[in-house]
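Support request, please re-run this one:
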Amino acid sequence: GNAAGVLPLHSLPAAANRSNCSLAAVVKSARDSVGADANARQLEARAVRLAQATPLPEWLTPAGGSLNMLQVAEVLLSGYTAQDEIRQLFNDYANADGEMDLRGWLAFQAAVQEEPDVPAARAAYARACGDAGSSRLSYMRFAMLLLSPENRAVPPNAYTADLSQPLSHYWVATSHNSYIVGDQLTGRSTREAYMRQLLQGCRHVEIDCWDQFQLRSCKTVPVVTHGHTLCTVESFDAVASAIARTAFVTSDLPVILSLEMHCKPERQHAIALALLSNLGERLLSCDDIEGSSLSPEALRGKVLCKGKVKAVLAAVREARSSADVAETGEAGRTVSERERASVASSETLYVRHLTLRTVPADDFLAGLSHEYGFALPITSIGEERLGREIGLAAPRAEALDEGSVLRGMAGSVHALQRKTAEQLLRVYPLGLRFAGKNLDPLVCWRAGAQHVALNLGQHPDLAAQLHYALFEDTGGYVRKPEEMVDGRGWPPRRESLRRVTIELLSLHGLPKQGEERPSRDGAHGASHGYVPELTGSWRAPAAVESSSTLRLKVSLHAIGGFCSVSTRRQPRQVETEHVTSSAGEHGGLSPRFGETVHLLAAEPHETILRVAVLESDEENASVDAEEVAFDTVVLGRMRPGYRTLHLRSRRGTRIEMCHLFVHISHGNE
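Re-run finished. Output below.
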């Protein structure tokens, strides 16, 4: 098998091809991952129990209570795909021979899946038939196609946007202390953290640059670390090299390097040389952006550096306190062209490559950014300061209740939206978040902040999960709503609400206790090769399995606008989450839920759906349910039909062959 534990179908014995068995790959990977007979026996025992409870072909009936590995794979696959709705769908569009041909497949795609892309449907059919070595789909192959990432509720091409607008019109995937893996006090600083985040689509990373004399190996070179903590150090040159290698693999949209500078001038020069050496023509200087179109489209494949230009900051302060200001009674004046030219002529190599130049927060909030004359001004503001500006009593680490957001905040939020329509704003977390718990990104995005810096070098909390949902398959740039950038204020009053109705049908392939099956496929698959402890590795289930109860928790998280979750089409009260009743077992591998939820949202493209699997111990009811899997998606990007949510583990990594099977329909209220 390959690194993901997937065997090509043609490598299986002929008997397996009769049912198009592909779960043998899972069996083999689980067996080989531990290299122990005990695991194979456990798989066999589970398959025998399943075979005794499920109608199976005669050749799969246990002989003397035992099965060979091929039969184990077949039985597990039968249990994995056992789903009444899937069987009925197949029967409705299969021919008299009990197989589905291309005509039946296209009819199913048009009538049930509402799939407008006929070439894509043909291609999916051709791939499925080619893998099976047949010209028609069997039920097993049809079921596996529905229960696959290819049938995800949000397809890879779901998001499209005009990328020719100014940079200030986009939310940008941004990380905080991007070099740290672990907590903010004792974490590990590593170049691999940058590689992982850039390959996952992050477009704005932070580099804390320090002179380091304590370590002999770093005595003459700048390093990257979290100053005044116990975090380890990494050389700046290694970080620059890592960024150059991975910046534009996943996305070619512009990358921003936020340089927190704590180095003396000679080290700053070394930093500039390292960036030029590694990035070459991809690194922009101030000369490159003069008179240029500063949009994501125009800046594809380019790297912009953000930092403070102390000489300009000093010049503005001096201009404000100069004698002529006092004589004329002006409150202040813009730095003159002559003064700017004088400052520019003395700029160092490092400063000339700071294309995003920092404006102090007080001046940004007072509307004085123009005094600095920067082509691309940007302001960094702490979450506590932002909270005061928009009327929050204190920073919050979790998503805010929509009612509290609306009360007393609309005017100040709209004022910030107008400011951020023209200038970039970065929000960073409270310094006391030593454990790395993130700020609430929803409030920041709603205020118009383009760059909401989150700690991504750890297992994802709710804030990081919302971040990954918003930016998934977008290239790292998401267009802000039109009303947020044209001065009208967002969200506006809507005459109708978008309704997404989801039938929660069945759960397939949830790992057993102690089992891990991280999927390393997909658009961001290469990222799992870096900081692999955040991804996890294949691990066999625990030797002893206890009985448990499964429920689903469905919740909505809106950047702005009304939203609700209810089992009623017209809810009696506004709730933003719902927990289902316990699942019923179905063959041991695909628990059924059979509940329907109606999701209402005024701004569906700015509302994130989260579905979590809750597991509780039947033998110990006093213990709270544990969240064992989840997925987050943007509500407005979901397509109709019978689809899957490809679930993630608590590490944030998608789980191999673990899907929640749902039916989705759209409407308005």
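The longest strand covers residues 654-668. The two ends are 50 Å apart (CA to CA).
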